[in-house]
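Moderator note: this is an archived Q&A kept for reference. The question asked for a predicted structure of one protein chain; the sequence and the answer are reproduced below.
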Amino acid sequence: MDQAAQLQQFWAVVLNGTPKYCSPYNTIPILDPTVAGDYLFLQEITAILPIPFMVVGILTNLVFLLAVLRATNIRNAVNIYLGNLAVVDIIFLTTIAGVYIDRKYTKPAIYHETLFGCYFMSAAEAVVFYATICLITLALIHHLCVKPSEGFAKVAAVGNIATWIVALVFGCLAAIQYGKVWRLCFVWPKFPAVFQYLPNGYDKCAPGPIQDKHYAFYLELIKTATFFVGFLANIILYVLVCRKKSSEDSNPDMTNQVSRLLVVNGIVIFLCHTINRVLNIFNAMTIFFGKPALDQETTAFLTLTGNGLVYLNSSIRPVIHAVCSRAYRGGYWTGLTGHSIEVEDSAVKDAKDTNK
């Protein structure tokens, strides 16, 4: 039997009983139980990982928004930025993380995708990333440069509106990288029966005929450059904020607390996004050179780790506020109960301790 006949016989066996859309051109046979088990584990962990972060993150961010609305002692211009960050986190946790959870518990035979779905998910991920970087940077700049007497609320409102415009523009640019949906077909081992929960088909977003093949490469570079430029800018702002003298402020202790929580917030944001931005670099290399820059195992591990850190970042941000500021802890209590508690600033507390 010649090679062509052997190949034809192989595909006849592999495709036996598969859906009509499966063909040798779009089918990936994964017949080794060990390899299939790795895919099953990846599917399970990808769906389970976001659940605790999603629950905690949505609750904590809603508590923060409630506190900002009800607690007058923490109502300031910086919270306009932090409140928008909370909205960004809720959008991220309910859309991007929610998709993986939905697929886990509905167990579809085909991971259906539409061109609109490709646009939406790509745009949502880009909007979340660019809005997060812009908001934390603008919050630092505002805290450092704008005085309350200078119409701080209007300045903050303009900054937030500009942030959403920029994020939406980059979201649209990210969305149009796709022009078609390409369905892949998978063939799994018939035994053990646990593999029956793996999808037979997976719709993959792909560039269309009018898209430049290097367009995705440019998007990856822009996202990476934005991250590292924002990181360097924030380092400079951290130094300036830490050196800022609060003696002229009417409430220097509150100013110091806000400075502390902004610096810690920024550090956590950039640390948690670093792995995904490194993956952007490798994705750009893969597109440019036409071959994978990383093996599948390394890519899967870095993707899971990077996504886990981003989920963590979105869920613990309100906790960071509480850890860094007594005023925010009191604000959370007011937001939840409607009753305010007296929070002494450090100067008053030190004076009382000295008089004892």
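Archived answer notes: The chain has a mean pLDDT of 81.
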